[in-house]
Amino acid sequence: MVPMVFSIMSENYSPIAAVNSLVTERLMSRAYSGVFNQIDKILDKLEPDQRKEKFDEIATHFGLDIKLIELNSVTQNAQKLQRLRNGEVVFISNDNETVAYKLANHNWAITVDSDESDEQELQRTASGVLYLINQQIENTPEEELTKSIAMLSEQYGYKFELFDREEFHQQSSEIAFTHNRGLTWFKDQSDHEVFVLSISGDRVLTIDPLIDSTETRVLIAAIILILMLVLGLAFSTWLWPLWRDHKRLTQTALAFGRGELDARVKIGKSSFASNLGSSFNQMADNIQQLISTNQQLTNAVAHDLRTPLARLRFANEILDSGECTEDEIQRYRKTINSSIDALDYLINQTLLHSRYNRSTDIKHFRHTSFAKFIKEEVDQYNFEYEELEFIASIDHALAMSTQFVDAKALGRALSNLLNNAARHSSSLVRVSYYRENDALCLQVDDDGEGIDEKDFETILQPYSQLNNPQRDHNNGLGLGLAIVYQITKWHKGEVIVSKSDLGGACFKLCWNPKSIEPSE
Fold it and tell me: pTM value?
């Protein structure tokens, strides 16, 4: 985009236009300076009232629009006017390409307009140039001709060669001459147009303007250089933020690798590396959460292992002492068995929590009538807890259809919620299964003591037990609700803890099956 802007922007500010103007001015100055100087000398020798007439006569020999106008009418550019006053040939870019030159001792300027190609312009200019050259040498004595031509060559900046007429015709017998507008020219080996001027007597003068492609090559090289600089600047403008963000990401990754788990990369949303930075931060969050959870699990498991291990050690020492009665032996064996059961329960719960702490595994999901499972589970709890009433409220449409769920995992969550409700309920536990907008909701309410609002989030954390400072296996390990939370996340849903309209606690699991089920 940047090079394009440079190419279409105003000529007053475009570097390409400035280079083009400079090179064109040098080309025009080289082509016309000799012509202007010669016309200036001719007019300077005349009276003021004769100059305009003489200039008009000279102009008729040029194929271009050559004019003699007041200096202040040439251009409104003060800088270019000053350069004209200093005797320079000045290029003026307007509707046509105009080159101007101020007469040395007068407040007039000669202008030449052209909107043609270099080759056409050269041919149109040549007639006037040849006329002026012929005027200068037509009365030159033979012995001074060579010297005069050398001076003209220096004055005009052209290559002049003087030949004997007969010798020239012999050398040019195989040359293709072109005749047009009274001019005769041919192209040499360098593809230059060389004009032929017959001189009175036996001499022929060839004139090579030497208008080659050097200036064009300079212009192209300058434009390419500018474009390269602009492209380099544009590339650097794009590369610098990318390099900066890459450096930030590298430094953050190294810091994270050193154990600085709070390290996060800060990359703007407009950056090319924005998605990479967001992915890194998400990965860092997951790793930090996983490490934190593992630390909690390690600490909690170590704590919960102490009690059954201490009981095992004590019972084993008593039994080894041989001083126990038969009743004590039976009691301590029962302690050993219960401690082993506690260890087994702890291991199973920890493994369950670890399993559902991973990403969702779609292969465990099936289209299942989960409402049927809820009814069977509620009936089982009514059988086991005769002192409590368990009721099921299931949406009719869900009862008559199947849902895409991990039934085993969701059944585990329901069982944990019912166990929790059975421990804390006074008389009633209600299970509800219904649709809320696009989400499926499984809700368990009880009429127990409830949960303080400040503990709504804490209760879902691993090894969190309210009103249970002893943390022994009889009251649970604090993993039941954490497993419920992980299973809900397994279904890409959320758990909402609140007060129940029954008076106790309410646990509401909601998930959108469309976010899990693969599209057909």
Answer: 0.43
